[in-house]
Amino acid sequence: MKKYLLLIVMSILLLSACGGFQIGGGSEEPASTETDNASGDTADSGSEASGSGEKITLDFWTFWGSEQRRPIVDQIIEDFNNSQEEIEVQHTYVPWGDIWTKNLAAIAAGDPPDVIINDINTVKLRAQEGQMEPLTEFVDEEVQNRFYDQMAEATMVDGEMYALPFNTDTQILFYNKDLFEEAGLDPEDPPSTWAEMEEYAAALDVQEGESYETIGFYPLIGPGSDLWMLNALGENYIDEEGNVSIDTEPVHDTFNWILEQKNKYGENTITSINSQFENAQQDPFMAGNIAMMVQNANYYVQLRDFGQDLNFGVAPLPEKEEGNGHTSWGGGFVAEVPSGAKNPEASYQFIEFLTNHDTQLYWAENNFDLVANQEAAMAAAESEEFSEAGQEVYSLMVENMDNTLLTPQPLVAPDYASTINPTFESIISEDTTVEAGLEKAQSDLERIVENNR
Amino acid sequence: MYNSNKMKFWRSFNFVLLIVGSLFMVAPLFWMVSISLKSMEEIYRGEFTFIPQDIHFSNFVDIFQAAPFLTYFVNTSVITVFVVLANVFVNAFIAYGFAKISFKGRDKLFILVLSTMMLPGFITLIPQYVIFAKLGLVNTYYPLVLPSFFGSAFNIFLLRQFFKSVPNSMIEAARMEGANHFHIFFKIALPMIKPALFTVAIFSFNGVWNDFLGPLLYLNDESLYTLQLGLQVFKEQSSTQWNYLMAGSLLVLLPVILLFFFFQKYFIQGSNILGQTEDK
């Protein structure tokens, strides 16, 4: 019996020694000293007054915890904390992807963070579900006009602004200049239409017997078929009102074009390169297995850091035919205030700081992200912090915003892609014909819209 | 002569089969070790090599700069110790009651307990979160530790079967000698089902050591984070630092492997007996 008694006593001792068992640790210092929480407040003390003066404490959730990003976020927070007396922001890293699950649970329980970084294309849905505080009353004209139009638009529902855009991205064409030269192509003259892409690809292919050593280009390595539909249509295949344009000529052409190239290379070649890409542990472009690839422009950072001086060039997305437009796609993130946050006004003050010129320029220079603040983005394109190649890519990113569409999920068809994508996939895997598949996708999506109206 | 040759053949055949089988099982682990020693440049180059060109032991040191893994290690250990102890003793206690003490409505109650196994954990996740939030226990270890003090149906079921194999005559004899049920439980029944206790301990160790969702939902303060949350810092929206992730994962995996080696005797005993016991 003594043994068990000892065990219980020991557990109680352990319990009291460990920070994780202190409830509402606001009155005491957090047990661990490893993280640099300067003040003794914990996250949940919210707007309560605490030890160090009458400061408001804000809990700021991001998924930027890596060695590269965390110091930059922390620096921005420090700058904000030093810039005024009333508000103290604390950074909490929550893992990528899971951060939003956690946010939802916290909102449901009435204990959300004060500011969170969230996906831009789903802002409208969250606003409709009442998951975020409207910010319109705080936003002045200068702030409203800071951002790229399409980004600001993505945060609006019924004239209310629900979040401030933070960063974005855009899809561009990367090509291997050395492989261009080997194939006798001009490395300074990248293809600009779909037809030219095919032509160049044929020149760049290196075949060995039945299999390919290098493939010139395959549209679905990197992006999905939705990007090419967007590129062909010049708009998303579903608009905000729920009008669907899948069973249309440009989309038919898109799938026929993709299938043509798939059949040229054969299923095996495509699968092998795609699997390299999807497990993300190898990179077919860096390995020289593919000469031209459409990617998010931030891919430059991977090339810069791990590409071992790969000689590459960048260009806008090709257009379907001349004059059709080099339409590209972008995503991005916003800073928002979850509903139930204790002090939206203070939260807004911090969000405003996150999106001002200097902060955004600092972020752009250190992360190579395309920032939402237009002037900061333009300044970054000429930044001395970047190499010549860096400036070239960043300038293209900025220019490309003219052609870049965001695809906010329409309220009448939330999460439409997960319903429709299997049909697109079965067209690509040739389980369905292009005609039948697109007709099905069109009617399926129309039904979803009808049901949600 | 013929016979022993035949036996030799089958023995070596078995041997080869086992070697091939275990190579197959160990290959992913080797691949992890290999990646954890590579540089990112080499990983991106995409050559399929088990032996890295340059061996970067420094990856194992560098990961400690990316996140305070020592703190995470201590945090995870504290949670694990509580959960494992609770799982073993609380469930055994409940199971003993179901197996050896007869009271009114016992079997109905037992079915009720079992029926909780039908509910997937994810369904109760959010309601449970809201309850803990209302109690003001979010951002502490209580939500991660407390539930294990209230029994888990699977473990109760498992241990009950084992307790049933303890002969009633032995318990009655002890009672005749004046021992109460607590005494019998600790001194007689528990020691007799040791393999089962180890099985429960190892299962729950694995469960809690590798738990990601629980700590993710309940912990807000980074100084309270666990290893599984810490590993995520190497994964970002567009890129993953595979070499660091694998180095970190290997370190996290180490205690699990060690535990298995130390306790494999019990572990295998326990798993084998699972479900074979009959009422006596």
UniProtKB/TrEMBL annotation, chain A:
Name the SUPFAM superfamilies for this protein: Periplasmic binding protein-like II (SSF53850)
Determine the domain of life of the protein's source.
Bacteria
Tagged with keyword Signal: yes
Q: Where is this region: Disordered?
A: 26-53
Coiled-coil residue spans: none
Swiss-Prot/TrEMBL keywords: Signal
Q: Which residues form the signal peptide?
A: 1-22
**Which ranges are annotated Low complexity under compositional bias?**
38-53
Q: InterPro entries, from UniProt?
A: Bact_solute-bd_prot1 (IPR050490), SBP (IPR006059)
Identify this protein by name. Answer: ABC transporter substrate-binding protein
Naturally occurring in which organism (per UniProt)? Salinicoccus cyprini
Automatic annotation (TrEMBL), chain B:
Which InterPro entries does its entry note?
MetI-like, MetI-like_sf
Record's superkingdom?
Bacteria
Name the residues that span the membrane: 12-33, 78-98, 110-132, 144-163, 184-209, 244-263
Gene3D superfamilies on file: MetI-like
GO cellular component, as recorded? plasma membrane
Topology versus the membrane, per the UniProt entry?
Answer: Multi-pass membrane protein
A GO biological process of this protein is: nickel cation transport
Could you tell me which residue ranges the ABC transmembrane type-1 domain spans?
A: 73-263
Q: Which UniProt keywords apply?
A: Cell membrane, Ion transport, Membrane, Nickel, Nickel transport, Transmembrane, Transmembrane helix, Transport
Where does it reside? Answer: Cell membrane
Query: Which family does this protein fall into?
Result: Belongs to the binding-protein-dependent transport system permease family.
Q: What is this protein called?
A: Carbohydrate ABC transporter permease
From what organism does this protein derive? Salinicoccus cyprini
